[in-house]
Amino acid sequence: MRIAVARETRDGETRVAMVPELVGKLTALGYDVCVEPGAGGGALFTDEEYAEAGAEPDPRALEDSDVVVSVQPLSVDAIRRLRAGATTVSFLPGDQAPDEVANLRDCGVTSFGMEFVPRISRAQSMDALSSQALVAGYRCAIVAAGLLRRFFPLNMTAAGTVQPAEVVVLGAGVAGLQAIATAKRLGAVVRAYDVRAAAAEEIRSMGAKAIDLELETLEGTGGYAREMTEDRAARQRDLLAPYIANADALITTAAVPGRQAPLLVTAAMVEQMKPGSVVVDLAAESGGNVEGSIAGSIATVGNAQVWGGRNVPSQMPGPASRLYAQNVVNILTLMTATGEAAVPGTFAPDFDDEIVDSSCITKDGAIHHEPTRASLE
Ligand code: NAD
């Protein structure tokens, strides 16, 4: 069977779902692989590199393949070009791509959403949310260091001592922990806060100081956080205000699944920061952790520059694509028929498998994924 690598068409998307280095993993499973010409351009991979790796550049890749892999959901136009019975693998958020999901359903396409791979141990190697959050968290710390017009590390020189920057990180999930680790490596003094009890130990294991606000913790299901009440949110903001006023750089990465990002920092809190301070809000696209942040631009609030993240993994398209492609290879491997009788390169997802079932969005002309169906129908 044939797997196509789609050329991304969304504005600002520079990643690609398969990198030349990993094409051999798919051909070794017995698949033919092709790419839409120019698919790797945003991530600096050429058609020649794909061809050398065994993936044929083909303008009819979408029409003539059984499985199409992409980062963003395929456009409605691309979906209508797929052959009957085709499968797609991509991120596929129903709330942000309702037309795409409806078209996948109506065209009889079987589609899988990478963000719905369950976060169980067996699926860790397919966890694209984590791989992309890792890239985003690193990038946030680098952006903060780049915007700040002072050193992150302590410098002891013959001309005197320069004190290290104070960095505060709010939200210590995958992205936050990576931001902490990166800021620490650059030598900053890092303090961090998260509403989950387990996060304090993880923050300390990265060498940062865990901020203890002595508030009740908010554990949800599956290792995620629970939403705050407005009263809890207000108390958290009051208690965090002095830490933020003292920070040279503030990095926010807080999220609650299925909800708008929680507002952790008001404009009044940012206004208390010192001249030259920097705020990096990774959650700007999903509502913002910081009042006044704008996704994709730098706003000025009080004395601070407030940087709002927009498709942050796309700012490091090479490594982000490499990690995403490995997630895709791993999920396609799971969905490939095995056993002595199996014909190599046969795509045969087993819907009794929790990973396959949970990540399937559309199948047999219907929306298979219950939360997506509930949000759209
Ligand atoms: P996420 O992107 O949903 O949220 C980011 C962080 O924001 C979380 O740590 C959350 O607790 C925090 N947060 C939410 N509301 C907050 C608030 N009001 N104030 C401060 N912080 C707030 O989370 P994520 O990074 O995807 O992962 C969260 C959890 O999932 C972690 O426990 C992580 O270890 C776990 N996880 C498990 C697996 C796996 O088992 N395969 C994979 C990845 C992550």
UniProtKB/TrEMBL annotation:
This is proton-translocating NAD(P)(+) transhydrogenase. Keywords: NAD, NADP, Nucleotide-binding, Translocase. The transhydrogenation between NADH and NADP is coupled to respiration and ATP hydrolysis and functions as a proton pump across the membrane. GO terms for molecular function: NADP binding; oxidoreductase activity; proton-translocating NAD(P)+ transhydrogenase activity. It comes from Nocardioides donggukensis. It catalyses: NAD(+) + NADPH + H(+)(in) = NADH + NADP(+) + H(+)(out). Residues 145-308 form the Alanine dehydrogenase/pyridine nucleotide transhydrogenase NAD(H)-binding domain. Transmembrane segments: none annotated. One of its GO terms (cellular component) is plasma membrane. Belongs to the AlaDH/PNT family. Its EC number is 7.1.1.1. InterPro entries: Ala_DH/PNT_CS2, AlaDH/PNT_N, AlaDH/PNT_NAD(H)-bd, NAD(P)-bd_dom_sf. One of its GO terms (biological process) is NADPH regeneration. Pfam families: AlaDh_PNT_C, AlaDh_PNT_N. Residues 4-136 form the Alanine dehydrogenase/pyridine nucleotide transhydrogenase N-terminal domain. It is an enzyme of class 7 (translocase).
